[in-house]
Amino acid sequence: MAPTDPCWLFGYGSLIFRPAIPFVERRPARVRGWTRRFWQWSTDHRGEPWRPGRVVTLAPTPDDICWGMAYRLDEAAETILADLDIRERGGYIRMEVELELDVSVGKAPDASAAAPQTVLGLTYQAWPGNRNYAGPAPLAEIAAQVAEATGPSGTNADYVRDLHTALEALGAQDTHVAALAARLPG
Length: 186
Ligand code: BEZ
Hints:
Mean pLDDT: 92
Largest sheet: 5 strands, antiparallel
Radius of gyration: 16 Å
Bound molecules: benzoic acid
Order of helices and strands: EHEEHEEHEEHH
């Protein structure tokens, strides 16, 4: 998937709290029809092949919204994306999404409000069937896996907590992230 022009990259996971990419500007954003889920194994960042961690992907959900952060990249977008392709090579691929920028974070879409600015952007998506797809599991099972896993980028528990803290700072509601963070020890 080629960069859009201008190139907006939508982050809904670690890109929210640790972008580690150069960008021109960033704006809170949402995508409609998607839900954030810890349904992807991480064997290279927040886990290891023998004890994988769980990281987020987007699950298609017609009536839901996923809040995140949109980054406008500069003219080096293709290089930045190529680096991200390598960083996220564990099953993610680029996907085009429609982004709503500068919306009232945490609020449901309001038909009477002024229309949000909508742009075409890119995000990374791990589809069912990729080699690291973990899929749904009971929350207690996901929490136990997260609590155990650690990898070169840090513990899986810190990943969940940092994401939860960043979403709270944005004012975004995500009951799946909040429920998982609440189950993690200390
Ligand atoms: C993110 O932070 O949005 C993200 C980055 C790479 C893969 C999946 C999600």
